[in-house]
Amino acid sequence: MKNDNVLKDKSELYFPKAELKEWENGVRQYCTRRNDTEVLISYVPPGVVVDMHQHKEAQLGMVISGELMMRVGDVERILTPLDAAYIAPPNIPHGASNLSDKEVIAVDVKRYKTEENYTAPEDYFLEVFKKKDLLPGMEVTFFVEDWIEVMLADIPGNGGEMPEHRHRNEQIGICISGGYEMTIEEYTKTMEFGTTYFCEAKETHSAINNLDHNTRSINLFLPPRYNKKKQRKL
Ligand SMILES: [Fe+2]
Ligand SMILES: [Fe+2]
């Protein structure tokens, strides 16, 4: 079935299969990648310290569940679910500790492109830029930095949808609750917790939630669609 293999490979470009990395300190990471961008979903057991380290890739991350003490450069802050994102620009040391008695789940994105300039807020933590209802029941929250935009989006159940469209921005997304059907070009995948999609510039995409409850995802846009200096209307 040669044809099926071709289809399967193309689909894995948009919806790469996660690779599991298990670290000695007990952290488990599900990693997906397309080109220069890697998405990591990390499970950090209670009491575990992720040592300070640095790399040439910029890293942005958020906590999905639990509470994580995050350190970037000499700034330390407790991150709670989806309240803020941290950015560790290239070669800036960063690390984390789970000081709680519950597992932490976090999403991190690592990326390096020579032509991009990886800025960060002065204290490395990115606050909510704005919140709004895109459609009734479709609440969205934006975090914006010069090179990246994070959009937390709910899609209502019973057929709520983001109609097919395309744009010049790269778009990457991670399902963090519920589930939905995501289509990129002609390939459809059922998104569930942790499933990640990668959509390059100009690739058509759409989403529909056929469940009877909301679904939530973290979506990244590179470059951002909004300029954080000029608070343009969305
Ligand atoms: Fe890192
Ligand atoms: Fe889009």
From TrEMBL:
Signal peptide start and end residues: none
Superkingdom of source: Bacteria
Any Pfam family matching the protein: Cupin_2
Domain Cupin type-2 residue range list: 43-109, 154-212
Name used for this protein in its record: Cupin
UniProt organism field: Peribacillus muralis
